[in-house]
Amino acid sequence: RTSGWPCRESQNATMPPAAPRRAFTTLVRDALASARASRQVRPIHAQVKPATFEAPAVSNRNDGFGFARVDLTPVSRAALFKRWREPHIDRGTAKLPSFRFPVAEVSSGGDADVASSQTSPGVSGEHDVTSASAASSAIEATHSEQLREFATNRRDAVLANTLGAEFGARAMRSFHSPVRKHMTLDPLVSEYSVDSPEGVALMSLAEALIRVPSGADAYMPDRLIRDTIGARELDFMALMKSDKSALVNASAVALAAVRKVVGLGSSASNGFTKNENLHDPPRTLVDFPLRLGVTKAIGLLSNKFTMGDTIENALTRAGRNERKALKNGKFVSHSFDVLGEGARTFADAEKYLAAYQSAARVIGVSGIHSPQMSIKLSSLSPRFDELSRNDCVGDLSKKLATVLPTGENAELCVFIDAEEQSRVELTLSVLEETLRQRYLDQTPPNAIGIVVQAYGRRAMQTLEFLKELAQKYPATELRVRLVKGAYWDFEMKEAQVVGAGMYPVWTEKKMTDVSYLACAAYLLENVGYLPKPAFATHNARTVADILAMTNGPGNFEAMGCEFQRLHGMGESFDYQGLPTRVYSPVGKPDDLLAYLIRRLLENGANSSFLKSLAQKRDDLMNVDVLEESFLADLEAGEFGAEASLTAAAATATGGLPSSPRDLYRGHRLAARGVDFERPNFPVLFAATESFVPAQGNNAFQFVDETDLKFKEMIQSLKHKKFVSVSGDSYVESVTRRASALDTAADLIERDNVKLSKMIMEEAGKTLVDAVDEVRECVDFFRFYAHRARETLLTPQVLPTVTGESCLLLAQPRGPWLCVGPFNFPFAIVGGLASSAFVAGNPVVIKPHPSTPRCAMALADILTAAGASPGDITVVVDDPSNGAGAALVKSGAFAGVSFVGSSQVASKINLSLAQLSVDNETPLARLVAETGGLNALVVDASALPEQACDAVLRSFAQSAGQRCSSARVLILDKGVKHELLSMVNGGLEALRVSCDVLNTSTDVGPLISRQAAQKAHKHCEELTRNGCVVVARTIGTDDLQNGLFHPRVIDLNPDSGTVSTTQALDLIDKEIFAPVLHVVTYDGSREQLRQVLDGMNKKGFALTGGVMTRCASTKKLVTDTLNCGNFYVNRDVVGAVVESQPFGGHGLSGNGAKAGSEAYLEQFVSRKVISEDTTAAGGNVELMRGTSA
Questions:
Q1: Cβ distance 375 to 329 under 8 Å?
Q2: In whole angstroms, what is the distance from residue 963 CA to residue 1102 CA?
Q3: SS3 letters for 955-1012?
Q4: Do 957 and 767 meet the contact criterion of CB atoms below 8 Å apart?
Q5: CA separation (Å) from 769 to 413, 781, 956, 959, 960?
Q6: How many Cα atoms are found within 13 Å in the side-chain-facing hemisphere of 260?
Q7: To the nearest 5 percent, what fractions of the chain are helix, strand and coil?
Q8: Contact 430, 397 (CB under 8 A)
Q9: Pairing state between β 966-972 and 1075-1081
Q10: Distance in angstroms (rounded) separating the CA atoms of residues 456 and 889
Q11: Which residues does the annotation mark as catalytic?
């Protein structure tokens, strides 16, 4: 090596003596003496106490929470090397348990009724919110207590407290020293944190400005600065105080002045500048200096948190840092991270792979001591997900093998970075497959590393698996970097989105800290298998706790351990001269967006050690997280642990519910999801039989209007149409029906995989879409059951004069016809039927001719749940005999619920009106949800990666066969080229196939051959009119089988052959297929408003959305675009029951929104009962309250 660095074994002998190290040694010696003298804990040199909990009775990583027994036996890698030649043995089961879905069973065979049974502890299919929350809290507390005991038994508490107090005091003095206070960015970053509106404003501004494309550089940066700083109620002067750093006070004055200047051009009433119809050309005396200042600030942040813009520059800087540290008696090394976003396209993956390969070569010959480099597997494949396991594991292992060092750069250790918890299992599989292939090739790598996140509930089990892997492949050093985890907020939301039974991460920071220390103890006791562990932390108390688990700092070094900090963070604490590695990001500012913002968030988090330093919180500097049991509060509860836990179940950290499924204020549980994380899920899914509805019990085949069975049904319905049901009988009916809906929801969740497979087979949906549909149906059932109990059972007391009683009672309207669509044959049909059913009406379902099985399955499930004979009837037809028209014209129904095209809805409306006129009968009510010409606006301030994801989901998911699917993309020309290129790459990464039973299929076929031909013809007509297909998936259309590839068509391409107005004229009707029409505007607010007005004139008003970081754009689109559901900075599909009630107006439907609190009112009539309460001899109630 050219650097002259000594090897680790001899570093103590060669490192120059230093006063800090001598002082630290003296401190440890004194603390050890104090610990022994106190006799409060075991001596630090005593034998390590073994684990106190039992291993599970059955060895299965999916059951229980038992840890492997701690093995302190020394390991000789040379002696074990011969074992690597053993044949590869497939584990066959998941490597780790799933904490999102604690127990998951999928079996098949014969008549078994457990084909998709999935239960969470304490839930068991119930809709009891309290039980689910209590179970989640109890399990988490119990598991955390096990970890606490494990760590406590391996740490000297007195030594930890002594070291923690000293380390905290040193860090506090260093952080608030005059040089650091007035000459560094630390106080500034801490001051403008996430708990202040000023900090949020500046972070959002920096995030947006970094990624403004060059095509919009003339107008977007200035607009962002004005919107963010000038249009918000920010008080920068409140941050200026005499004891603050000079930099903080100077920035407060400067920002206050900026706000005053830009505020002069803002309108408080409408949120954008007075010059709103133009591009807002910059005012030379104001905007140019502002932009220059912001650019300089971003440069300062990049320099603080990143090692260099290129790997060569980063290595030069790192070399200087290492030499400087060595002169001061400190041992510092570096780990480089070539930053980038996750790959959304195959081109991105190839680019990142080339960058990793190049960086590995350069680092390997740089002379940097013991270098490391981190890679993200998600950056090497756009299909890094469990459902693509069969493809991505082999592909990623081959790519990873090309990055691992060989020959001259063998000293480099490549670390696999940690990502989302849903990818932990997949990451371990890639690691295992990489080692297996390299061993089979007889080229085992010298070392490979992996990052383990302690905030994950499976961190300890991950370490156990890694130990097993190290035993299996002993010729390779398997190193672990232990971190706490940086994406807690994402994991919590994701668990709620997917309907998980429990959170995959700890819900309290204290639990994460305990998990970190337990994992550290495990690593220290298994350094023979997992050598050279790295402990990433900026917390001085955590450092003290880890050192208290070893036999002093000398042993910490001798064991090959090291601490790690992030570049730009933690400089106020020097780790007392112990081996420290600096995690060093490399890249340009536009590649560092996510990383920079995450570092700012971590610096400013209220629970951050650095935040405590900035606020001088001495009381938080030396907190022993292992001191107090998590079960103490439960054990001290007045009514016992269970009652105490239940009372606190709904109050998790940050106001989050204890159970991810308790989203609705304790009223009901959200629908449970399916565990796709299980590696063997595709195999088990293939062996699971689909749901088969009973034949003939609740359904019959329509022949024609003269059919005897049809006539009998119509006559029965007409008789029920004028039968009044009210009072106690109505209360009993609604109560029974609401209970039936709850039971039906439980039955659906029990058979969710069976039902999903049925939907896939009949409607051609992909697995993810089918599962989402089943969950939506469950949500409809539980929500309408809850609303019925809340609004239909108890008469509403109306305000009136004294001496009078006025009550408002509900009663059923009468027989109800539900005409369902093909695109959501289970969820929408279930929502239509359940709402009319729970209101007390007889219901007839007329499903789409293509999807009768789904409707019959619903009827079977409702009957099994308690619906009476005749409550639910399914009429099945085919396109040739028109049962729908016959049912509507029969005059037997008090109302019709319809989801489909606006043309058919208009015909039904006309038919009902004509029937009422001709027969002088009551006018039946029509509740219609029809399609939409839905628009998504993307301006030049939107983050392209986020916009790309939103565009793909909005128009291509479900093969574009959603009423809410985006049909029009209104695109700022400044970001057009970059975004469309990314969208094209994203489409090329999608798997389009008629084989929807293949769980990795992303887009399936359209519902019919006719639908595919119609979409194909539409695209051909547009191209003949000068439009251009700018993006599409890979492959050819198979129109005969309904397969139509998603595509994006530019209606006014750069050639200018079609104007904006002419482009809008080309699209007047909804095309129910994955076709996205792009309309480009010039970036000005004037033309954007013109395009939005043109969209409104089409008459549709269903969904819309905007992707922007610009407040004025958001306000303009939100206020102007006419639609029923509007989405900001996300996709425009996937409305959730109760959270996002769905429905439009105009050509997009009428009536209340589905899944809203007002929806059930459409299916009942109201009776007002007024009574004169003085008729019996006076106003008794009034007289009782009057004194003589």
A1: no
A2: 8
A3: HHHHHHCCCCCEEEEEEEHHHHHHHHHHHHHHHHCCCECCCCCCCCCCECCCCCHHHH
A4: no
A5: 41, 19, 12, 10, 12
A6: 8
A7: 45, 10, 40
A8: yes
A9: parallel
A10: 60
A11: 929, 963
> Hey, CA dihedral for 194, 197, 203, 207, is it positive or negative?
positive
Tokens 């013109």 appear where? 1090
Separation between Cα atoms, residue 970 and residue 1092, nearest integer Å: 9
CA–CA distance, 369 with 331 (Å, rounded to integer):
10
> Average pLDDT of 1022-1031?
93
Parallel, antiparallel or unpaired: strands 895-899 and 816-819: parallel
Q: Tokens standing for 1141?
A: 């009630």
> Greater confidence, 332 or 610?
332
DSSP β-bridge partners for residue 810: 1166
What gap in Å lies between CA 785 and CA 773, rounded to an integer? Answer: 18
Kind and range of the H or E run holding 1114: helix 1111-1120
Q: Which residues pair with 1168 in a beta bridge?
A: 808
Residue pair 370/409 in contact by the 8 Å Cβ criterion: no
String of DSSP letters for 313-335: HHHHHHHHHHHHHHHTT--EEEE
**Which amino acid, residue 115?**
A
- Whose tokens are 């670390």? That residue is 415
Q: In whole angstroms, how far apart are CA 83 and each of 73, 86, 87, 445?
A: 18, 6, 9, 15
Three-state SS at 143? helix
Give yes or no for a contact between 163 and 157, defined as CB atoms under 8 angstroms apart: no
d(CA 646, CA 232): 42
- How far is the C-alpha of 605 from the C-alpha of 1026, rounded, in Å? 53
Question: Residue 734 — φ and ψ, nearest 5°?
Answer: -65, -40
Average pLDDT over residues 367-382: 92
Q: Which two tokens stand for residue 67?
A: 């840890």
Site of tokens 């029969």: 890
Q: What is the pLDDT of residues 813-869, one digit of tens each?
A: 999 999 999 999 999 999 999 999 999 999 999 999 999 999 999 999 999 999 999
Q: What is the pLDDT of residues 833-849, one digit of tens each?
A: 999 999 999 999 999 99
Phi-psi region of 442 (alpha: psi -120 to 50; beta: other; left: phi over 0): left
Q: Which distant-in-sequence residues (6+ apart) come within 8 Å of 993 by Cβ?
A: 1001, 1003, 1004, 1043
Q: Which of 281, 262, 295 is nearest to 219 (CA)?
A: 281
DSSP classification of residue 229: I
Residue 203 to residues 199, 225, 288, 600: CA-CA distances in angstroms?
6, 12, 20, 8
pLDDT for 392-407, tens place per residue? 999 999 999 999 987 6
| pLDDT tens, position by position, 4-55 | 333 333 333 343 444 445 555 566 666 666 555 543 433 333 333 333 323 2
Between residues 978 and 182, which one has the greater pLDDT?
978
* 3-class secondary structure per residue, 1115-1163: HHHHHHCCCCEEEECCCCCCCCCCCCCECCEECCECCCCECCCCHHHHH
Residues 378 and 384: beta-carbon distance below 8 Å: yes
Terminal CA-to-CA distance of the chain, rounded, Å?
106
CA 727 → CA 305, 741, 789, 809, distances in Å? 70, 21, 15, 8
- Average pLDDT estimate for 1161-1171: 94
* C-alpha 459 chain-centroid distance: 20
Q: How confident is the model at residue 636 (pLDDT cuts 50, 70, 90)?
A: very low
Cα–Cα distance for residue pair 478/464, rounded to 1 Å = 12
Which pLDDT value is given to residue 23? 56
State the pLDDT confidence band at 794, using cuts at 50, 70 and 90: very high
Backbone angles phi, psi at 119, to 5 degrees: -135, 150
